[in-house]
Amino acid sequence: MKSAMQSLDAINLLVRTELSKFKEIYVSILKSKCDLLNSSVDTILAAQGKKVRPLLNLLAAKVCGEITEITINSAVLLELLHTATLLHDDVVDDTLERRGKPSINATYGNKVAVLVGDYFLSTALIMAMKTSSMQLVSIVSNTGRDLSEGEIFQLESTREGFFTEERYYDIIFRKTASLFSACCQIGAITGNEANAEKGELFKEYGHHIGMAFQIKDDILDYFEDKIGKPTGNDLREGKITLPLLYALNKAGNTVSQPYKDMITHKEFTAGNIAALIGFAKSEGGVEYAEAKMQEHIDKAVGLLSAFPDSEAKNALCSLSHFIGSRKY
Q1: Cβ atoms < 10 Å from Cβ of 77
Q2: Domain extents for the chain?
Q3: Which residue(s) pair with 102 in the sheet?
Q4: Beta bridge partners of 98
């Protein structure tokens, strides 16, 4: 296995033909006769991210065998589902920016954003039928349920004000890691349907990578250089993520009580947000979260040792480490 970490561009290059096909299908399947819908879709496409989930799907298939038409269709399906959840989440969270650009709800209003989210979800169902696999439909259906439950659990916990570290992990598994897990498992299955064991290994790999991805995302919210999401945005929404959760549980009641009061009374002024971030950092919350994130990355990379060395395996190892080292 190569020791040097590849850049994201180099990883993409390994499956550039398949990614190009993925993008072609993704754009074409969303075309509509409705001008407002097309305008909304164009806005979304202009603000697309790193496409980590399709990349995981394609590389998992390549490690296990070969990337097939079903693999690419499933990558489109999963990205459509992901985008639908983002559109709906932005409405729920009243998020006005995504990846540094105005969100759909900020540009077109909540009604349009919800309906566009429904359109993406309906299109995902069309792509699910194109796979002609009830096994894949079952995985995606259960994943969609997990995604919804995760967001509702988070909303419930936000209203309560506090939750345990165990509750935090359950939420981020459902709202983030479950989709990563599905991407990897489906990639493995479509790459080699005859080997169920490979699918299970990649399901677990995706679980750990997804957990690491969300923990890293939460860490980035405590720093000023995050692109497309203002510092402390989670705190403004009342979301207590791992760095602050650790600090609140670690510090004694006398020290932590003023910060707990801010959260309980939802006093998320700019000054209080800065105080909460400073408190989390001073109590070692960021370092703790980074250690937990690294545990998941190490477990994910360890699972890849079950597969023979290959360019695709090296790329997955690099992608795993990229997720932990990214700055945005």
Answers
A1: 30
A2: 29-325
A3: 97
A4: 101
Handedness of CA 161, 256, 279, 273 (dihedral sign): positive
* 206 CB-side CA count, 13 A: 31
Q: How would residue 6 be classed by pLDDT, with cut points 50, 70 and 90?
A: confident
Highest mean pLDDT among 9-13, 167-171, 189-193, 227-231: 167-171
pTM assigned to the model: 0.93
Q: 257 near 282, Cβ under 8 Å?
A: no
pLDDT at 231 over 80: no
Burial annotation 204-241 (CB, 10 A radius, 16+ → b, else e) = ebbbbbbbbbbbbbbbbbbeeebeebebbbbbbbbbbb
What pLDDT score does 194 carry?
63
Other beta carbons within 10 angstroms of residue 2's beta carbon come to 12
Percent of residues in the chain assigned helix, strand, coil, to nearest 5: 75, 0, 20
Question: Which neighbouring-strand residues pair with 97?
Answer: 102
Q: Which of 315, 314, 309 is nearest to 11 (CA)?
A: 315
pLDDT band at 3 (very low <50, low <70, confident <90, very high): very low
pLDDT digits (tens, 9 = 90+) for 173-185: 999 999 999 999 9
Mapping DSSP to helix (H, G, I), strand (E, B) and coil, where does residue 269 land? coil
The CATH superfamily assigned to 29-325 is: Farnesyl Diphosphate Synthase (1.10.600.10)
Q: How many CB atoms lie within 10 A of CB 298?
A: 14
